[in-house]
Amino acid sequence: MKLCRFNDNRLGIVEGNTVRDVSEALSVLPQSRYPFPRHDVLIEHLPQVRKAAAELGANAPVLALSDVKLLSPIGNVGKVIAAPVNYKKHLAEVLGDPQIHNDKQIDHIQRAGLFLKATSSIVGPSEGIALRKLERRNDHEVELAVVIGKTADNVSREEALNYVAGYCIGLDITIRGPEERSLRKSPDSYTVLGPWLVTSDEIVNPGALEFSIKVNGEERQHSNTRELILGVAELIEFASSFYTLQPGDVIITGTPEGVASIKPGDVMLAEIEGIGSMQVAVRAAA
In sequence order, what DSSP letters do the residues of 130-171 get, joined into one string? Predict the structure, then answer.
């Protein structure tokens, strides 16, 4: 099932070029009071939501996909966990380009570890990217995003995929410079998730997905997740050995070679096999 959030937090099932508005399915979610949960309640109750959505779908209002504003498919991400230099060719690219590594010591992911991005940086594809620090290089990075479906603590790689709710496309936008990664990658709108959540049952093998990104029609990055250094299961094992993963947490798995700068006025088209494509416009921050 492909589930999207659109317009004013409506819930939809994506079918081809249409969206079935099944927002009434949200009524199965438990009511919360302050202090509110730190995880995503919809993802926590995804089986119940899917069941209700499927029952509503046949008679639900149908909208053209082109007429809706697509938001991040996860409304309340607890944390965004990111994997640096997780493709061999990108590691070589980073090591060979001082504009990317900025004289920082670059290490293999097994030694460098993972890093966190601020959840305030998350937007959906229709919201676009608002670039800051325009005097510096801002780069695109396209990645497979993994959405955790249930609490995961010290999970083995053999069991890891059982903890996945689904997948979406992730764009990790990066300001190049000397500061720590989490700062340069966390401005508002620098994490794009979308265009919808594809539930895990539709993607049997996340380790064999073709993906790409084009900027103004020019292909910049093209690879396959089989080229990951640490695959999805290994990343979940790695991350959950340091902290407990909660429903709605997102792991962005790393980007391949071909990272390059973007500027206001650019339009990006990111695609991942089995998920779909999303178009994202770039502007200057106000």
Answer: EE--TTS-EEE-EEEEEEE-S-BSS--TTTGGGGEEEEEEEE
Cβ(127)–Cβ(5) under 8 Å?
no
Contacts of 250 (CB under 8 A, 6+ apart): 74, 77, 79, 80, 81, 145, 146, 147, 148, 170, 193
Residues 183-228 have pLDDT tens digits of 999 999 999 999 999 999 999 999 999 999 999 999 999 999 999 9
Q: How far apart, in Å, are the Cα atoms of 91 and each of 14, 94, 96, 97, 157?
A: 36, 5, 9, 10, 23
246 plus 188 within the same structural domain:
yes
Residue 155 and residue 48 share a domain: no
Distances 174 to 134, 185, 194, 259 between C-alpha atoms, Å: 12, 5, 18, 10
Same domain? For 122 and 36 the reply is no
The total number of structural domains in the chain stands at 2
Nearest to 170 by CA among 254, 260, 77: 254
Task: Kindly state whether residues 194 and 163 are assigned to the same domain.
Answer: yes
Dihedral angle sign, alpha carbons of residues 266, 133, 72, 240: positive
| Sign of the dihedral through C-alpha 231, 118, 239, 37 | negative
User: What's the pTM value of the predicted model, to 2 decimals?
Assistant: 0.95
What's the CATH code of the domain at 172? 3.90.850.10
